[in-house]
Design brief:
ZPR1_jr_dom, Jelly Rolls, 4 domains, N-terminal domain of TfIIb, Zinc finger protein ZPR1, alpha+beta, five-stranded mixed sheet, zinc-finger
Length: 467
């Protein structure tokens, strides 16, 4: 049921009243009353003024939500609703899971409102925005579908026996999937990028699940409420009937490249950990023997979180690049590393693989990359099973101990950076421009799938003005 109010949800800044602190806090019964925001709104039952209470909070292992509760003192009408407030990711996500065992049926699945669910073997398709986002399992998705199809079947068998028989036959096919009489495939397409399927082998690679990220189309961005700056400008012109765009071009010659290299730009953002308002510093710099990059650093005054991110200042290279770094001395840990947002990380000795979107782009050292991988694996609760699972606890404990041995140089290891875009870099300890003995650099031709993920297959570089 939709919220029976006519108010507009206030912005995060107005809710906070300029107080520093996390916007979305963990659920706490003692503090919930004090943190709730009350606003007057019209009752859609008697059209008198009632009160809506808003609470911005976080559901453990899930995401940020806005809890809304409306009550009218005149007619007694009440209405409660929950709305997602999770951040839209930079890219959409496509997840393909091969379900082959009961363990696969029990995998946890996090899906957002914008997730399209498919099971091709039974021609099942659940459109995006047809159901609310939820935390469930693979079996739970099938169960919910069966419950929906079973509604009013008794009445349907009397009034429309042919349709009821067809639905019963389809429900039987879904029950066969639950009984694993045949293997099947579960596909999730989420344009918001907020869906996830549990990896029961974590932190090891999951052989039955493949996750790919894709760039949204213009129509998909608009469905999420994201618009191009030029469209916003055009909208401003139409509304104001005058030329007042939000973004204005800089006159030629007023801002030179040298000025940009020496300038540190700042813009408002939210802390990635506690979601408190903070500032991000951005600077264009050049890495010796490599190329120009944009470095962004964020420091949160509330929780002390420090992050840095790197964006390539150039285009995609003609070939992909693979770096293999042998780690067995202090010098190896101090190498400078530029990891782009298209670069995969792999440690063969641990059978550990981290996708490009996990750590984002960053400029750090080998030690910094290893520490970031370890911290993210330890802190990402949604990746793992229940903490009461002793087998998992022992496996995970052993994995972290091996990671710590690598960082303390008690165990030699190899760090592999595989970047299809060729925008990553690892410092060579050699006096020449050639790689040293512990660093192996390989250039390779990208596959069709890699070009597709980078959006290169649809690029036309010759006669592009023609249709």
């Amino acid at each position: 049921m939709a919220t029976q109010t006519t108010e507009t949800i206030p912005s995060s800044e107005s809710i906070q009243d300029e107080k520093k602190g996390p916007i979305f806090k963990e659920i706490d019964a003692d503090e919930a009353v004090n943190e709730a925001t009350e606003i007057e709104s019209a009752c859609m039952n008697c059209f008198k003024t009632g009160v809506t209470r808003l609470l911005l909070t976080k559901i453990p292992f899930f995401k940020e939500v806005v809890l809304m509760s409306f009550k009218c003192e005149f007619c007694g009408f009440e209405n409660n609703e929950i709305q997602s407030a999770s951040e839209i990711q930079k890219k959409g996500v496509h997840i393909k899971l091969e379900v082959k065992s009961s363990g696969d049926l029990n995998r946890r699945v996090v899906r957002s409102d914008y997730t399209l669910v498919k099971i091709p073997e039974v021609e099942l398709e659940i459109p995006s925005q047809s159901q609310k986002g939820e935390i469930t399992t693979v079996e739970g998705i099938i169960d919910r579908t069966i419950r929906g199809l079973s509604q009013d079947q008794d009445k349907r068998r009397i009034e429309h026996p042919d349709a009821a028989a067809a639905i019963d036959a389809y429900i039987e096919r879904l029950n066969d999937l639950k009984a694993l009489k045949t293997n099947f495939t579960l596909e999730l397409d989420d344009i918001s990028g907020n869906s996830f399927v549990e990896n029961p082998l974590a932190p090891a690679h999951d052989p039955n699940c493949k996750t790919t990220h894709f760039t949204r189309t213009k129509e998909q961005d608009e469905l999420l409420g994201l618009y191009d700056a030029n469209e916003v400008q055009e909208g401003e012109k139409k509304i104001l009937k005058e030329d007042k765009p939000l973004l204005k071009p800089i006159p030629e010659g007023e801002w030179t490249l040298e000025d940009l290299h020496g300038e540190v730009l700042q813009f408002q953002t939210l802390c990635p950990e506690c979601r408190s308002p903070c500032e991000t510093n951005m600077k264009l710099t050049k890495i010796p023997h490599f190329k120009e990059v944009v470095i962004m650093a964020t420091v949160c005054d509330v929780c002390g979180c420090k992050t840095n991110e790197v964006k390539s200042g150039g285009g995609i290279e003609d070939k992909g690049t693979r770096f293999e770094v042998r780690i067995d001395s202090k010098e190896d840990l101090t190498r400078d590393v530029l990891k782009s947002e298209t670069c995969n990380l792999l440690i063969p000795e641990l059978d550990c693989e981290v996708g490009p979107s996990a750590l984002g782009g960053r400029f750090t050292t080998v030690e910094g990359i290893l520490t970031a991988m370890k911290d993210q694996i330890e802190g990402n609760d949604v990746m793992f099973q229940d903490s009461t699972d002793e087998a998992f606890k022992n496996r995970f404990k052993g994995f972290i101990e091996k990671f710590e041995k690598i960082l303390s140089l008690e165990m030699p290891a190899t760090l592999v950076l595989d970047d299809p875009a060729g925008n990553s870099y690892v410092q060579s300890l050699s006096d020449t421009e050639e790689a040293d003995a512990k660093l192996q650099v390989t250039k390779y031709e990208r596959s069709y799938e890699q070009n597709e993920e980078l959006g290169l297959n649809d690029i036309k570089t010759e006669n592009y003005e023609e249709q």
